[in-house]
TrEMBL record:
Chief place of localization: membrane
Gene Ontology MF: a single term: D-glucose:sodium symporter activity
Organism whose genome encodes this protein: Nocardia speluncae
Lineage, broadest ranks: Bacteria, Bacillati, Actinomycetota, Actinomycetes, Mycobacteriales
Key word Transport present: no
Entry protein name: Sodium:solute symporter family protein
Record's bilayer topology term: Multi-pass membrane protein
Bilayer-crossing regions: 26-46, 66-87, 99-120, 141-166, 172-191, 203-223, 258-277, 308-329, 362-386, 407-433, 439-461, 468-486, 498-521, 558-575
UniProt xrefs under InterPro entries: Na/Glc_symporter_sf, Na/solute_symporter
Keywords: Membrane, Transmembrane, Transmembrane helix
Length: 576
């Protein structure tokens, strides 16, 4: 890797920082205001369709696959995709593609082909409810509580970044901007429930693309096209390694190429990715809102196609920002020389600085609306999933049973308010991380990695017992937290996001080992109680849609998944 001399003047300039403000004009504010009118309008229209808790929590299981497919991917187009991945692009370059082509698409296809028939066919209303039916109340309570905590923390990430946008746009203090952003999201989720969230997510998907595509094209033009970007990235800290996705040493934190590839493929591509996409109710909830098993299976598969292309309008702008915007270029040089440099500039601001640098008024308004859409989609997805799990899996199951449907509908709306208030407080935890992906991957290693181990073992091994379900979850989570604490206290040190990969891998392995050991000394559930929950005990007719054979080729889940998988393999080879 090339060595770069960084003058003390650069470090001092970055340390002092500057107040980031976007030069928005009346036309930009008008575009943003028009977007908010549409968002709240959708919430009001969706409210007319809410007559039961099933309508509020799962849209009455009536939505078409193309709507839920776009909502599926838009729900993930929050802080992770927009600010977190542009930050990764600015810091690491091409290796950040792994979060999409290794760390997302394969797991999304597996969810659609293999796991959705069990979720949808069993008629569960949430992923924790599936856990209760498979493993009993012990594993269910652990999963429901950990999921609820995770959603409040991740909603705080989206809320923090949403407040940041209002802060740089209007100059409001960050705490005021965070509260204002929370009120906007709270309004349409409380009004229209999941339907409002999903239809807004479809709108938000198109707004996000309309914002980021021009930003990417104009940014590429400003750096001299693709060849100009390659030249500038090669000459920047990190050098030409940023133009090769493999072996991704800077991203994984491993100097050894083999260990780096192993960490990315196993830690990110298998444990973190499958743990997130196949067991995260935020995503699964969108598929459960469809009208049939085939539509539910197509939901994540349809979402995989835009997911393949999104890095081109998220990661590439981050790379452009790091070489085009003076503040970002200076910050990258300074932090390369001294990782502990104190600066008001962070990688999380890469996209904002690029927008300020290249977008004219008018397009700036579209860009701002796109960012607001992204963060609102992300937070709304977290909050709508939280209110379902809190109301159905915690309140109805353990606190107040056998009340009227309208009672639980009211609880769901109150849970929405509670989650939003809690997210206001957790939002400022995210502010302590210069790269928001570090924080998110840490959370995923805590909660999703052990959950995936329990799920995959319990779904394909009928002998696994209820006691093994909850003890494996607890042990896996404890190991992930322990590894994080050891890294933070300096017992060992991994740069990049390697500690999350290691923690996730360890959590997965420990969960499996503990689950198998406990299963050997405890009693399993009767086979009759595992129908619809375990692969070997579920008849084929319960796992398939009776009309599946009559569907045209473009609606067949397995064929669509195969095409998407081939595209991902080609892209991984092309960027190696």
């Amino acid at each position: 890797m090339p060595q770069f001399e960084v003058s003390q003047e650069v470090v001092s300039t970055v340390a002092e920082g500057e107040v980031l403000r976007l030069d928005a004009q009346a036309v930009d504010y008008a575009i943003v205001a028009l977007y908010f009118v549409f968002v709240l309008g959708i919430g009001l229209m969706a409210r007319k369709r809410i007559s039961s808790s099933m309508d509020f929590f799962l849209s009455g299981r009536s939505l078409p696959a193309w709507v839920t497919g776009l909502a599926f991917i838009s729900a993930n187009l929050g802080a992770v995709e927009i600010m977190g991945m542009s930050a990764n692009g600015a810091e690491y370059g091409f290796p950040a593609f792994h979060y999409f082509w290794i760390g997302a698409v394969p797991a999304m296809l597996f969810l659609g082909v293999v796991m959705m028939p069990f979720y949808y066919g069993s008629k569960v209303r949430s992923v924790p409810e599936f856990m209760r039916r498979r493993f009993g109340t012990g594993a269910h309570l652990v999963n429901a509580l950990s999921f609820a905590v995770a959603q409040v923390l991740i909603a705080g990430v989206n809320l923090y970044l949403l407040g940041t946008i209002l802060n740089v746009l209007l100059g409001w203090p960050l705490w005021v901007a965070v509260i204002a952003a929370a009120v906007i999201v709270l309004s349409y989720i409380t009004l229209g429930g999941l339907s409002a969230a999903i239809y807004n997510e479809v709108l938000q998907f198109f707004v996000i693309v309309a914002a980021l595509l021009p930003l990417t094209l104009i940014g590429l033009h400003r750096v001299g096209g693709w060849s100009g970007l390659e030249d500038k990235v090669t000459a920047s800290p990190g050098g030409a390694a940023q133009l090769d996705s493999w072996p991704g040493n800077a991203l994984s934190g491993f100097a050894n190429d083999f260990l780096s590839i192993l960490g990315i493929v196993f830690g990110l591509g298998f444990v973190l990715s499958f743990g997130y996409w196949t067991t995260n109710f935020v995503e699964v909830q969108r598929a459960l809102a469809t009208h049939s098993i085939s539509a539910a299976r197509r939901t994540p598969i349809i979402g995989a196609y835009p997911k393949i292309l999104i890095p081109l309008i998220v990661i590439i702008p981050g790379m452009i920002s790091a070489v085009l915007v003076p503040q970002m270029a200076e910050y990258k040089q300074a932090v390369t020389a001294n990782p502990d440099v104190d600066s008001d500039v962070t990688y999380n601001q890469a996209l904002l600085y690029l927008m300020k640098e290249v977008l004219p008024n008018g397009l700036l308004g579209v860009g701002l609306a796109g960012l607001l859409a992204a963060f609102m989609a992300g937070m709304a997805a977290n909050v709508s999933a939280f209110n379902t799990v809190f109301s159905i899996d915690l309140w109805q199951q353990y606190v107040v049973k056998d009340r009227s449907d309208s009672y639980y509908l009211t609880v769901g709306r109150l849970a929405t308010v509670g989650a939003t208030v809690a997210a206001i407080f957790t939002a400022f935890i995210a502010g302590g991380f210069s790269n928001i992906m570090d924080y998110l991957q840490t959370l995923f290693s805590f909660f999703n990695a052990p959950l995936f181990a329990t799920f995959i073992l319990g779904m394909f091994w009928k002998r696994m017992t209820p006691t093994a379900g909850w003890t494996g979850l607890v042990a896996g989570t404890a190991v992930a937290v322990t590894i994080f604490v050891l890294n933070e206290t300096g017992v060992f040190s991994l740069s990049g996001q390697g500690v999350s990969f290691v923690a996730a891998g360890a959590a997965f392995v420990v969960d499996i080992v503990v689950s198998v050991a406990v299963t050997m000394v405890t009693a399993p559930k009767p086979a009759a109680e595992l129908v619809g929950l375990v692969y070997s005990e579920t008849p084929r007719e319960l796992r398939t849609d009776p009309e599946a054979a009559t569907l045209p080729w473009y609606q067949r889940p397995v064929l669509l998944a195969g095409i998407a998988l081939v595209l991902v393999i080609i892209l991984n080879i092309a960027t190696r």
